[in-house]
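Milestone 3.1: sequence recovery, worked example.
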């Protein structure tokens, strides 16, 4: 007995295929069969419409970034803008920490209410939903703290005027997401500045000292939000000290100074950035999650033009564009400390609202109107044969035969110290800056 194959139709009816000779369908059966397929086209359309509507409804939810992804992407944009405005205003050597600034101001954003929430969020490039912003930033910080083979600490603290009432919801949120310690102080007491400086110095292994002074506070100061970041990491491929020799570092086309240059020939992620008229070199630290990216302009006086182009570049994508190559590298040793007053810089980034009288920070306290009056940052970085040591604190006041790629960093260049959990993750920028000039060194080190 021949088998009969059964096919479901779009209407849910059952159709049988044409049979062999001796079992052919009659003309009437064919008509009925055609009816069952052709007639219900309006139903097919309805089913397709339903399917398409379902796609339209579920696709946005499926494509939305998680809080972590949103904060990581926002950090990339914030870091690019932060570097743009700070580098433009700082003609000398620069080290800064967009991440330290972001964390400190995010603690203020956590207390925003009303239309101040989206205004501050846009300036910080954070999700408008405060819980999402706090959750995402907390996850980013946690990944940083877990980075292997390097020393990386991130600490936060709030200093509150004695007897000034902080809302429990606010202090609970900061403790949950930032592990913030709160301490009551008398801001008019000169010893308060010493107390804050001692805490910062301890968190940064004595690299950041005197972040604030007694003149930083007055009778109107209600609270100070402080973030401190410290990093020390050995290179994955250290430079050999016996290869370090003095070479000229050009401050312009005609002037140079002799400074110690480290040298090695090895495998590094590298790329020619033709659109920037520059080269990219990425030097990983042990553990592979953190790295220093050097962006070297091709021209001796090309840094200004490079930084103008970086202002519109996709920084995250750019920093990931290197691919492993055998590279010959000459990199000067350097040590930099920078003090920054960031109010004007942050205002240019769209954060003027947080410094205005219109800002609503009643999520911190309803006792008095608050606004951010000052943001100061002190940062330090040292790059040597063994690796890099860097620190930052931000305070926010209310109130040869070989001829592969050849990278000789003998002229002003930009650098970014970044973290990536894995190769496809968005880089998080911890430190950024530029080298303009270096002190004269007569002897090899």
């Amino acid at each position: 007995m021949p088998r009969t194959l059964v096919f479901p139709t779009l209407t849910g009816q059952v159709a049988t295929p044409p049979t062999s000779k001796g079992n052919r369908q009659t003309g009437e059966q064919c008509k009925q069969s055609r009816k069952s397929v052709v007639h219900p086209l309006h139903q097919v359309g309805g089913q397709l419409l339903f399917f398409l509507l379902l796609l339209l409804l579920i696709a946005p939810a499926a494509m939305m970034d998680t809080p972590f992804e949103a904060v990581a992407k926002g950090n990339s944009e914030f870091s690019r803008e932060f570097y743009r405005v700070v580098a433009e205003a700082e003609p000398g050597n620069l080290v800064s920490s967009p991440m330290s600034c972001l964390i400190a101001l995010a603690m203020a954003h956590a207390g925003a209410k009303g239309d101040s929430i989206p205004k501050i969020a846009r300036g910080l490039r954070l999700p408008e939903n405060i819980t999402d912003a706090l959750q995402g930033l907390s996850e980013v910080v946690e990944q940083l703290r877990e980075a292997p083979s390097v020393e990386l600490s991130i600490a936060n603290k709030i200093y509150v005027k004695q007897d000034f009432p902080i809302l429990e919801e606010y202090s609970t949120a900061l403790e949950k997401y930032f592990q913030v310690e709160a301490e009551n102080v008398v801001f008019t007491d000169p010893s308060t500045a010493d107390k804050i400086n001692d805490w910062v110095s301890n968190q940064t292994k004595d690299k950041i000292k005197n972040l604030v002074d007694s003149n930083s506070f007055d009778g109107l100061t209600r609270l100070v939000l402080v973030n401190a970041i410290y990093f020390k990491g050995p290179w994955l491929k250290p430079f050999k000290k016996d290869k370090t020799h003095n070479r000229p570092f050009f401050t312009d086309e005609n002037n140079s100074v002799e400074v110690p240059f480290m040298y090695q020939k090895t495998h590094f992620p590298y790329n020619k950035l033709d659109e920037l008229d520059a080269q990219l070199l990425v030097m990983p630290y042990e553990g592979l999650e953190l790295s220093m990216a050097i962006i070297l302009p091709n021209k001796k006086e090309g840094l200004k033009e490079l930084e103008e182009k970086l202002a519109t570049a996709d920084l995250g994508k750019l920093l990931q564009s290197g691919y492993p190559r055998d590279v010959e590298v000459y990199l000067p040793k350097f040590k930099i400390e920078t003090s920054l007053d960031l109010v004007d810089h942050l205002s240019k980034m769209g954060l003027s609202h947080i410094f205005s009288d219109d800002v609503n920070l009643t999520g911190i306290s309803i006792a008095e109107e608050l606004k951010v009056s000052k943001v100061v940052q002190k940062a330090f970085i040292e790059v040597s044969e063994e690796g890099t040591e860097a620190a930052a604190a931000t305070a926010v006041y209310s109130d040869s035969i070989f001829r592969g790629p050849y990278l000789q960093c003998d002229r002003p260049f930009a650098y970014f110290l970044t973290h990536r959990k894995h190769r496809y993750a968005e880089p998080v920028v911890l430190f950024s800056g530029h080298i303009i000039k270096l002190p004269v060194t007569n002897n090899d080190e």
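The domain at 241-334+403-435 is CATH 2.30.39.10 (Alpha-1-antitrypsin; domain 1). The chain is about 30% helix and 30% strand.
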